[in-house]
User: What shape does this take?
Amino acid sequence: MAKPRKYPPDPKTPLVTHLIELRDRMLRMLAGITVVFICLFPFANDLYTTLAQPLIDQLPAGSTMIATEVASPFLTPFKFTLVGAFFLAIPWILYQVWRFIAPGLFANERKMVLPLIVSSTLLFYAGMSFAYFVVFPLMFEFFIGTTPEGVAVMTDISKYLDFVLKLFFAFGLAFEIPIATILMVWAGVTTPDKLVAKRPFIIVGVFVIGMLLTPPDIISQTLLAVPMWVLFELGVILSRIMISKRPAEDDDTSPPEPPPPSAASQEDFYDRK
Assistant: This one.
């Protein structure tokens, strides 16, 4: 016999209560980013040097990076530190998102969402690390090696930052493919068998995405497309495992009994400190 599903708190809570809670969570997100930024800012120049190291290692002897704008030596490390603070605060940001949506989820949904949030964060960091340690050295070596004779390579520091941030986002989001696959299967949008049947189209699609999100060279395109394909296959495998372990109550089509009236006050709708 299927177990009854646990209902979320009283759905009649006023909209104002939700908005106040959303405001509080957003303020906590901003506070977390600010704290991380303050801790990182004294090391802004060192952090940027570390970011630029894959390019610096490939530059010819005597070549350096340059700053073509007056404020670039200050604003570029400042911008990178701010973006880095956001990246490092992602676990805190997702935790606040989780605390906001958790009261409105069923018990079985909470068990599903929390591991997805943790794994999506780790995958995003893995994508950025893959870009920095694997893609950047190979890509910059290719670019520097194809420089025409008589051309001095002196990359502007702000243009370099914009370039690598774009790749960080591209690889970070690309590594979220297993999560997207699991969510689509969990929501009933598709099935693992249907995804496998569309594998040829997906392979072509990931190479097209790699072409659009990376510089116009076959190395970076392939280094993005192949991991996306592998992660898609991983997502299919994990979605099959998820379906095989789905609780029996998810298959129960009979309507559940309505929940008893909640005695909790509106102020207790969210789990506060």
